[in-house]
Structure formats: C-alpha cells, structure tokens
UniProtKB/TrEMBL annotation, chain B:
GO terms for biological process: formate metabolic process; respiratory electron transport chain. GO terms for cellular component: membrane; oxidoreductase complex. Residues 96-134 form the 4Fe-4S His(Cys)3-ligated-type domain. It comes from Sphingomonas horti. Residues 18-96 form the 2Fe-2S ferredoxin-type domain. Keywords: 2Fe-2S, 4Fe-4S, Iron, Iron-sulfur, Membrane, Metal-binding, NAD, Oxidoreductase, Repeat, Translocase. Gene3D superfamilies: 2.40.40.20, 3.10.20.740, 3.30.70.20, 3.40.50.740, ADC-like domains, Dimethylsulfoxide Reductase, domain 2. This is Formate dehydrogenase subunit alpha.
Length: 71, 945
C-alpha cells in the first residue's frame, strides 16, 4: 500500500469482507465507516466514489453510496 | 513514617470457613481450621521465634526454633507444621523451650559471621533470634565453618554470601513454590549442604534463575541481599505504590532513604501480585536516575538544529503558539495528541481532554491502537464492555487454561507464576502459539496440548475448535439459552458446524494436527472451569478483532462466563493500557467506552468542561501519519509513547513525523520519536507522581509519589501547563481532583475516589452504587450488553503473503528482561540478559540459509530491511522466524508492514513475509538512522535564561 487513498480503499474493502456474514453487510460496513473514520477520511473516499470508485468491492461501494445518501 | 518490615505470620493463611478456638499462653484464640499454631499465635500478637518459616511459603519445619508445648502432646512440636485443634492448649514460652531455642541458636551462631553487616543493619534475623532466645555466649570453640566461601556476585542486582547462609531452604522453596522456576537447590549433604543455582558449573547469572527476587525476599539472613542495600544501607521509610511496567500491576513497597530509592519490595497485600515480583519491577528502576534523563524543556525550529534548553514558561508559550498557528493555517483538524499507557489515568484523561476541549477535535489515540484495540472492539461487540472478565485470583479455580497468542512467562511473569502454581496443582493447559513458549514445558508443568499454528490463522483454529464443540454436542445449551441471544447462537452454530470448518478441512491452512485440535477443543469444553488467557498474538493480526470475537463465542458456547475460574482474559501489555483505554483515549469515544456521536453524552461533558465538543470521530495514529504525509496533519503532542520505534513500517512513521511542523514529545528521554520533534517536555517517572493505574484485571491501583520529580513537575502538571498556555484555565491542584472528575463523568468509575482507594487498597471497575467496592468477576448474572451476542467470524487469510521473494514468516514478541521499546529497561542492568534483539530461526532453515548461531542476518520484507544476529532454536517452526523490538539499533519495525486489523487498524505485527540471508553488517537504513539520531540529539551549550 502507498498513499492515503489507496489505504482507504483497502480498509473499506477489508471491512466489507469481514462483515460479509452480517445480516446486512452493506449497512454494517456503512455503519462501521461512519462510526470510526474521521470526516476527512470519509470525504476522501466519497470523493473517490464520485470519480468512479475504482478498486472498491461491490459491498464497500454500496456502503459508501449509502453513506453519501445519508450525508 | 518510620521503616518497618512487612508483617510475617510465619505460615500462609488458611481459607477454611470453619473456625477453631484454642488457648495460646492462656489467651483464647479463634482462627480458621487448618491454621498452624505459629500463625494463630502471630495473629494473636504472640511472635514465636522462627527462621525457616515465612508466610509466603508452605511450612517446612527445619530450623527447630519454633518449638512449642502442647498440653497432652508428647515432646515439643514445631509450631509451623502443627495445625490448630479445638480446645488445644499451647505454651510458646517455658524454661524448656528457652533452653531448646538457645541450643539451636548457639549452633547457628557457630557458623555465622561475628561481624554480620546485615545483622547490624537489621536485615538479618539470626542475631535478633539469638537475642530473643536470650543467648549471650557461644560455648563451642572455633571449628570448621563456611566463613571463607566465595560470594556469588554474578547477578547485577543481588549477591549470594554463603557465609551468612543458614541453609534454611527458604530461597529454594521460594523459587519452587512462588516463582516456579526451580533454579535453586540445596547441594550436598550435612555440613557440605549449600545453596546452589543451576548446575555445579553455574553461578546465579548463568543458571535458570530469572532474577524475580523471591529468594532475596525470602532469605531470613543477609545471605541473599540486594546490592543496593549493601551500597546505600537499609531504608528508613516505605511507601506502597504500583509498578510502572507491565499490565499485571504489581504492588510494591518503595523503600527509601529520604529521596533515595533503596529497593522495591513486592507488597504481600498486593491483590494483583500477592507478594511476588519480576526482574523488571523488583530491580530495573535505575532508569529513574539515569544520566540520559532530560530534565529541562527544549525547543528547536527544525529537526536539523541542536536542541536549546528553555524555561517551562517559554516551552509552554512556544508550544501553544505553534499549535494555534498551525490550526489557523491548516484548520482545526490539523493537530492531535497521543496519550500514554505508561502514565496515570489522571494524566491520560487530561491529554484526551486537552485534545477534545483545547484542540477542539477528537484526534486523540493511544498505544492500545497497536496492541489491544481489537480486545476493546471484540469484547464490546460480544459481551458489552471492553475489558477482561476476571480477576487474577480467578486462576486458582481454573481447571483448564487456554493460552493463545501470549507468552506469560516473559510478558506477564508474575501472573505466569500464579498460572504455574495452579498447573502444578493439576489444572490442564492448552497452548496455541506458533512458538514453543516456555509455558509449554516448564519444571513440573507440561501443556496437555500445544497447537503450533501457522501465524495468521487464529480465526481458522478457533473456528475449528468451535466446530468440534458444536458437532460433538459439547456446547452448554442451557447457558446459551439463559444468557445469550439464541437466534444469533443458532446462526453461529450452523456456521461453525459446516464441514469446511472441521479441523481436518482447515489443517492445510492452520498446519495444526487435527486430532490434537479436536482433543484440545474437547478438553476446553469438558474439562471443568475453562479460562482463556490471550495476548497480542491474538490481536495483532488483520483479523485481530475477529479472533477476540471468536474467543468470546467459544467461551459463551461452553458456558465459561460469570464465575471464578473461567472467562476471557486479555493480558494487557503496558502498566496502564487498560486505564488509558478506559479514560477515553480512542478517537471515537469518551471515557467509559461511549461513542462521541451520542449527543446526550456530549452534553454531559460539555456542561462539565464548558466547551462544545466535536461529534465526529477523530484520527487513529496510522491515519494521523497518513494525513501528515498528505500534508493535512501538521502537529502532534505525544505523551510517553515512542511511535517511531513501536509502530509498524518505521519508514512511513518517520515520513509522517518529518512532514509535521510541530512535534511535541513529552517523555523521560530523547526517544526515537524525539528525533523528529521540535519541542521536548521532560516527563516524570512513576516514582515521582500521584495517580492511579488500571491493570489487566480492571484493578484501579494507587500510584504514589515517593520522591520529588527531577524535572520539577508531574506529567499532569505539564499537560495542565500546556492547556493553560492555550487558554483553557485549568486549576487542578492534585490528581485526586482529576479522578473526581473522571468519576463524575464515567459510570464505571462512579464510585472511585482517592479516599476509597486508600481505604480499600484497590478497586476493580465497575465501581458504582450497584458495586460500591468494585467487581472482581464480570457478567455474573447477565452480560453487560444484556444477552451475549454470537458473531460469525469467517476466516479471511491475511493479504501479507509469502512467495518466492519473501518465503518466510516473521512474528515478533517480547522478552522477560526488556519492556516494550526498551527506553526504560535498556537503561538498567537488565541489558546483561538481552543486550540486543536476536532473530530466532529453526535449525533446518538456518542450515538452508547458511547461518550459524551468532551470525549476522539480513531480514528483508516489502517494507524494509534490517540486520541482526541469529540464534538457532527449534522453538520456532520451520518457515517461521521470530524477533523482539526492544532495541532501536535493530529497528524490527522497519520490516513490519501496514497491514492491520480490519476493525481497529491494529497493526499485523505477527505476520510479515520476509527473506532471511547472511549479512556482514548494518543496512543502509540502520547506518543512516544512527547518523540521524546522533545529529538529532545534540543539545546546544546555550543555557536557558
């Protein structure tokens, strides 16, 4: 990993993979990121999502879309 | 307060709940059945002479000095081995007894130095007992004796003088019964009997002795005596305080001569250590007066400049000015702080308050980020609170111990001794660890099962164990139905029962022998009270939180919660890492593990502090460093933490620190992080401050100032100085006021105060109206969250993969004699045991790589490379290498990566793919770093005005 954005993408995907067995993985991933990431980190990855969100897995992408809607 | 020895009742207390009444010297005495006559007399204030007896050891009956008369009994039985009986009539003094005792003491004195210095100073009981026996002269002439035997001065902290030894075996028994090392013996017979350490060719230093000091404390003469007592003389006062090293939290008497510490002696009434100690807490306190301590504040404009000493006022004003400038330039969120797990709760609370109320953001984190943050997440998710479930005493009722990812004999040695005591009594042991840790096979201790798993596969192993529990019908369904969420349990049980989670199916991943894993799971589920003890080998993984959750799942499924002898027990690393987490050091939560987003909670703090609080979570340490590299995070206040040495991927940490405009290091020494600092605020040791620590069993313990801070201020005062330079107007005059504030704002600490701590000695949180004297065992009738929550933990392999370039796995840990980054212990004589970090490598791998014992090896990973010497040992498996991180010259974390726990960002220190190859010297990084350190530690000759 190098660079903050690359790390954030990795983190989001890692969270989603580990919450895949939750009853609602998308909601759980979104809630985890909302609860533990600071505003700048969230803003960075949402900006990346707005630019296409390359590298994001389907669950983490869906979770970030949900976060964006809630913002 | 004058100096007094700790009371000694001669033999241990009986725990029987039936009382016996007897007469001793005409006095009616009632004691629990099983009490010895010696102890019953001592408790009644009647001291019976003794030499071989002490209340920390089982009765021995060798010195024949404690003889008494018992009405109706023949002879004169030894009171130390004679249990009380109902209506027994005992006489402790008579002409016959005095004559017998004089005879015994007369013989002892024939072989005791006439000029015994310890006797003269009151640290040797021989002369005192001779006086007590009324002995005036010795009838026997000079003869053979042991007065010319050479002293053993090999140990850096204590000497053994055979001339003073009375061969009472107290040292041998202490090593056996208390410490469990069995390093000492009585060699020879009759007149030739002598205390020996290890083999005949050994001295104390070369033997298996671990320098815990139990023998020194047990010795009734000056035969085994601290060298500091020899050099300084006996103490004149003693203050009870709490050790500043590991999370066991041993209570010590700091024994002083004025402001000079003479020795640290474990306090028998300490509830965490029960009178025991290890080499660090007992002896390794010399760093407190080390010449490299920095006592004056210093500043510099750039890290390329030498430091310049300034006044405290100038340092505070400069720091505040820089922090304000940076926030004005880069924004409110551009600065943050790191609290210390070595400092007190009160100091830690103030640092997080400074960040939240002063910096007006939540960019505060603590070293638990890199150790037990997954414990907080995992246990809160499943049980409802972020702490271990038991007290240490609980181990005495444990039938099965499961130790996973912990090396207690090195990391938590005093508790390890208690574990070994219980194991010697017959409890069974399961060890899950890639290495064959010492506990696997110790004197009179052998693990029933050692599962040497591949590093990084904890979750797979625990899921396989759960598979055995469920598919073989070993779950405690009655407990689960009563105490846990049944639907979540059913989902979890179905998950783990899947054939893909069987030990056989997962063996290719875990490398654990399936029959051994099945046997271990059966033992854990059916062996009686089963307790899990775990450490950083669980948490420091990409699935650290999942592994903690898996442990809680396993314990819930087998009904191992809510009573003594069971539970899930994290062995916390640093002295106050539990407390620093309790105090709200994480960026998303306030004290008591409550999320900052809760408006009602914020309102409570805002009303108390008089400032609005940011509702958004702040940055974790790794994210602070990322943001610094990005140019968004510009200033950091670090209290008592050395992130450059302790955090992963050293080059990235260095890049982050170098990118900041103001790094404030508040510490005892110019540590590695200070190489990148612009302001240095001198810290105070645990001996120089008042406050509290919380140990691994949630025990809040007093830390008491035994000497004035050499730098002039306790650490909480320094933080207050900085806060007030920022205009916060704090007016604390004593740490007790800070604890009052903590109690006011934190439900789990609601009943805690310094006055109550003085009264009770220590308190285990929660302490509130429901539990006014604290809570030794948690989750007794229900879990904190209500119903225990099972969570499915799918094993996901780490992304740190071995391959042709990096074919081996590195895992890291610690060693007994050194502590964390070594800033304290490297500045003591403990370096005699561990002068450098070594790379453990299996003999097969060593041969493959052309390495021999003591050779230099290059250790390279995707992050970086370093060199260190190798030691060849089969305690690591083929394909796995191991090292410690205590020495900055090695910089083991140059090699570790930024992979981290999915939930908490705790680094994956335990799994790094590496290449090992022969080397002939330091790497370029090591050479550059050494030059940087030398340059960075220059202090200008220009003095403060």
């Amino acid at each position: 990993m190098s660079g903050s954005l690359e790390r954030l993408i990795y983190m989001a995907n890692q969270i989603a993979r580990n919450l895949a067995t939750d009853a609602d993985p998308v909601a759980a991933t979104a809630q985890h990121i909302r609860s533990f990431w600071d505003p700048r980190m969230r803003a960075m990855i949402l900006a990346h999502l707005a630019e296409g969100g390359s590298g994001l897995d389907p669950t983490s992408r869906a979770a970030l879309l949900r976060l964006r809607e809630a913002a | 307060m004058g100096y007094e020895f700790q009371p000694d009742f001669g033999t241990p207390a009986s725990r029987a709940d039936v009382d016996v009444t007897l007469s001793i010297d005409g006095r009616s005495v009632t004691v629990p059945a099983g009490t010895t006559v010696m102890r019953a007399a001592a408790e009644a204030g009647l001291a019976i002479p003794k030499l071989c007896a002490t209340d920390t050891l089982k009765p021995f009956g060798s010195c024949r000095l404690c003889l008494v008369e018992v009405e109706g009994a023949r002879g004169t039985p030894a009171s130390c081995t004679t249990p009380v009986a109902e209506a027994m009539v005992v006489r402790t003094d008579s002409d016959r007894l005095r004559r017998l005792r004089r005879g015994v003491m007369e013989l002892y004195l024939t072989d005791h130095p006439a000029d015994c210095s310890a006797c003269a100073e009151g640290d040797c009981e021989v002369l005192a007992q001779a006086d007590a026996a009324g002995l005036r002269t010795v009838r026997y002439g000079p003869g053979a004796d042991h007065q010319c035997e050479a002293m053993d001065v090999s140990n850096p902290y204590f000497d053994f003088d055979p001339a003073k030894c009375i061969v009472c075996s107290r040292c041998v028994r202490a090593c056996d019964e208390i410490q469990g090392t069995f390093a000492l013996t009585i060699d020879g017979r009759g007149f030739g009997s002598k205390v020996a350490a290890g083999l005949p060719s050994d001295d104390f230093l070369s033997s298996e002795c671990v320098s815990c000091g139990a023998c020194v404390q047990a010795c009734p003469t000056g035969a085994l005596q601290e060298r500091s007592v020899k050099e300084l003389g006996m103490p004149d006062r003693a203050i009870v305080t709490t050790c500043g090293y590991c999370g066991v939290g041993c209570t010590f008497r700091a024994e002083m001569q004025g402001e000079q510490l003479v020795r640290m002696v474990p306090w028998k009434d300490g509830k965490a250590n029960r009178g025991h100690s290890c080499v660090k807490g007992r002896f390794a306190w010399g760093y407190a007066n080390h010449k490299e301590r920095i006592l004056n504040p210093m500043i510099r404009a750039s890290i390329d400049e030498p430091w310049r000493e300034v006044s405290w006022g100038e340092a505070f004003a400069h720091a505040a000015s820089e922090l304000k400038r940076i926030q004005a330039t880069y924004g409110r969120l551009s600065i943050g702080g790191i609290t210390s797990s070595r400092c007190t709760n009160e100091e830690t609370f103030l640092v997080q308050k400074l960040v939240r109320a002063g910096f007006q953001n939540n960019n505060v984190d603590t070293c638990a980020r890199v150790c037990h943050s997954p414990t907080g997440y995992g246990l809160k998710t499943t049980l409802g609170t972020s702490a271990g479930t038991q007290d240490f005493d609980s181990v005495e009722q444990c039938d099965v111990m499961m130790v996973i990812g912990a090396n207690p004999t090195d990391g938590h040695p005093v508790f390890a001794s208690r574990m070994k005591q219980r194991l010697r009594q017959g409890a069974k042991l399961i060890v899950i660890d890639p290495r064959r840790i010492d506990l696997v096979r110790a004197p009179h201790v052998e693990a029933a099962h050692h599962l040497p798993l591949r590093p990084g596969t904890n979750v797979a192993v625990l899921t396989a164990m759960a598979h055995v529990v469920i598919t073989e019908g070993l779950a405690d369904e009655a407990f689960v139905r009563a105490r846990c969420d049944w639907d979540a349990y059913c989902d979890w049980a179905a998950f783990v029962a899947d054939a893909r989670h069987s030990p056989e199916a997962l063996a290719p991943v875990t490398l654990v022998d399936p029959p051994a894993l099945r046997a271990a799971a059966r033992l854990y589920a059916t062996g009686g009270n089963a307790a899990i003890y775990y450490g950083l080998g669980v948490t420091e993984h990409s699935q650290g939180s999942s592994a903690v959750i898996a442990l809680a799942n396993l314990a819930m499924a087998t009904g191992n919660f809510g009573r003594p002898g069971v539970g899930v027990n994290p062995l916390r690393g640093q002295n106050n890492v539990q407390g620093s987490c309790d105090m709200g050091s994480f960026p998303h939560e306030l004290s008591g593990y409550r999320h900052i987003a809760d408006p009602a909670l914020r309102a409570l703090f805002e009303a108390d502090w008089g400032v609005p609080l940011d509702p958004e979570p702040g940055l974790r340490i790794p994210n602070m460093l990322d943001a610094a590299v990005d140019g968004a995070f510009k200033a950091l206040y670090v209290q008592g933490e050395d992130i450059l040495q302790s955090d992963p991927n050293t080059k990235h940490v260095a890049a982050g620190l170098a990118a900041m405009e103001c790094v404030i290091v508040h510490d005892l020494f110019l540590n590695e992080t200070a190489n990148y600092a612009h302001i240095f605020l001198p810290g105070s040791t645990f001996l120089e401050k008042d406050g509290t620590f919380v140990n691994a069993e949630r025990r809040i313990q007093p830390v008491r100032k035994v000497m004035a801070p050499l730098n002039g201020f306790e650490d909480w005062q320094v933080t207050q100085g900085l806060a007030n330079a920022l205009g916060l107007g704090w007016t604390y005059t004593h740490p007790s006021e800070i604890m009052d504030e903590i109690a006011r704002l934190t439900p789990t600490f609601a009943g805690v105060s310094f006055a109550k701590l003085d009264e009770l000695g220590s308190i285990q949180w929660p302490c509130n109206d429901a539990a006014p004297e604290g809570t030794p065992v948690m989750h007794v009738d229900s879990f904190v969250r209500g119903k225990g929550r099972f969570v499915v933990t799918e094993y996901i392999p780490t992304d740190e993969k071995t391959g042709p370039r990096y074919p081996m796995l590195l895992t890291t840990g610690r060693i007994l004699s050194q502590y964390n980054v070594g800033a304290q212990t490297r500045r003591t004589a403990n370096t005699v045991w561990h002068p450098e970090d070594l790379l453990e490598i299996h003999p097969h791998d060593a041969e493959q790589h052309g390495l021999k014992e003591g050779d230099w090896a290059k250790l390279a990973s995707r992050s970086g490379e370093t060199t260190l010497r190798v030691t060849v040992t089969d305690r690591v498996a083929p394909g796995v290498v191991y090292t410690t991180f205590h020495h900055p010259a090695t910089q083991a974390n140059v090699v570790t990566t930024e992979y981290s726990d999915w939930a908490t960002s705790c680094p994956e220190y335990k799994v790094t793919a590496v290449q090992v190859s022969p080397s002939n010297g330091p790497t370029e990084w090591q050479e550059d770093y050494e030059a940087l350190t030398e340059r960075s530690r220059r202090i200008s000759a220009e003095a403060a005005e």
